[in-house]
């Protein structure tokens, strides 16, 4: 959705490995973060995305590999000197300090020689309060604010020190759906305005696809794919990426002469040259269409259907007890038990 | 549907699924009166027989005055020490995991459970000039037993569990991410400790201090063994009360008791006020 900012490399993650106790969390993971981009680290829980973020921040040390900030090796740099901003899922605000003092904390923590003058700190705090639209909340305490407000303060606190990179760990994870949506849009706006290099971690694919300039999909401590939201959606590098980005239906298929066949019928899906013989065809719910018997690739019976947001979702029982969900815009009301045929319009096949 | 709204009434309680406000409040007041207020009232009534000038006379009696000074002065010092030391103990027991942690954690409670006389004998034998510790202290010129130093040691001993147990739950509650946030924002370790970690603990430390102080003022058993009880030097006010009683000077005993009551009340009130202020200032708003 958003054009990738083709800036220089701001942060290079080089062959990072990390093991906790005996469980490996990150395997030889490398990726580049471009200056000014908003990079989403997407992955299921346990994929190592938070660990990677913490290693970049300096909160955890990698067992092997290097973290390079703008050309300088920062692997051994203590967390205090990394000049990163970090936003925690549960805000981690200082409860005993006012909102203004929370935001000013990083500036006040500086050595006297590097600390801005009091008036300047006050002005900076005021500007940030304006930015997060909480201008009149400077004297409040965090416990008097809502979750969304607290997270905005956490962001302002992180931005106050003008970090080289802003790191957000599931920043909207603890908020309810509506607030999450607003904050997402707002974060994008702030990013567009400040051009701050930002990495955020999420397990929510919608969030990653909506917000990111580029998405890095992690699974089991490995980087599966990195690319723009369009790239990862149109050309997923692996079934893992595909499955993680949305609902998928797995269909047994045969690759033959560059075409994929299902139940003896040819589909419009072309098979890569390396895929021969029995393969798995992955189909999104909206890549299926109702069709009559002789054009159908799949058959089954309607189990139930419901409407949401102008589309119809129909659950179909397939022979063998498999269930699939079809998304259709037709208004045809399908009763439970009704036999249906389904035609595959497109899909994804990976080399076997 | 018109519902006549009843006139708003001042409520003393929140609606709850569990009944029994009247019963529990009544019980509370009865027990409090019988066990706490009535004896204290009797004490004051007895002392008032002397009249204000009588009580004043007792208070300004050099021996009484000195005993009161020892009791309250040493209690304050001991509570201060117990708070400082207890906070460190609580910190170590909560933040770190090491072999024997649970044993040490259990040992902290011993002064709670030990009969005070046992503690007194143990401390006296340890700190006596020929005792294990006392011998070493004597070498550097410190006389522990039979001086206010001994009283101080006994008071720290019995006050420590209060200081530890009140702070411990709050230390356990400290959010590790808050410390990380402070470090990421560039704060030094010392800065993180003094600006982020410690301030929220202050109300609990004050509670521990108040309890240790109160316990120290009221302590009798363990102190008289180690203090030596020399008038004007290491005689505590509770002992003086016992002495007055044994001399059948009930009014005098009550007078000292009343004075102690008044001072204790004033000190605890002051601590509570500071606490209320710090609670507002350092969290839990």
Question: How would you describe this structure to a colleague?
Answer:
The complex is a heterodimer of chains A (352) and B (285). By secondary structure, chain A is α+β, with helices and mostly antiparallel strands. Chain A is 24% helix and 35% strand. Chain A has eight helices and 20 strands. In chain A, strand 4 and strand 5 form a beta hairpin. The radius of gyration of chain A is 24 Å and the shape is elongated. The N terminus of chain A is likely disordered. With 285 residues, chain B is mainly α. Helix content of chain B is 75%, strand content 0%. Chain B contains 14 helices and no strands. In chain B, helix 1 crosses helix 14 and helix 8 packs across helix 12. The two termini of chain B are 41 Å apart.
SSE order and pairing:
The complex is a heterodimer of chains A (352) and B (285).
Chain A: E1 9-20, E2 23-34, E3 38-42, H1 49-57, E4 64-69, E5 72-73, E6 84-87, H2 99-108, H3 118-131, H4 147-160, E7 165-169, H5 177-194, E8 198-202, H6 205-211, E9 214-219, E10 222-227, H7 229-234, H8 239-245, E11 249-256, E12 259-262, E13 265-270, E14 277-283, E15 288-291, E16 298-308, E17 311-317, E18 323-328, E19 339-344, E20 348-349
Parallel strand pairs in A: 3-8, 3-9, 6-7, 7-8
Antiparallel strand pairs in A: 1-2, 1-4, 4-5, 9-10, 11-12, 11-14, 12-13, 14-20, 15-19, 16-17, 16-19, 17-18
Helix pairs in contact in A: 2-3, 2-4, 3-4
Chain B: H1 21-48, H2 51-60, H3 62-95, H4 101-107, H5 110-113, H6 116-127, H7 132-139, H8 148-173, H9 176-184, H10 189-197, H11 202-218, H12 221-227, H13 237-246, H14 250-281
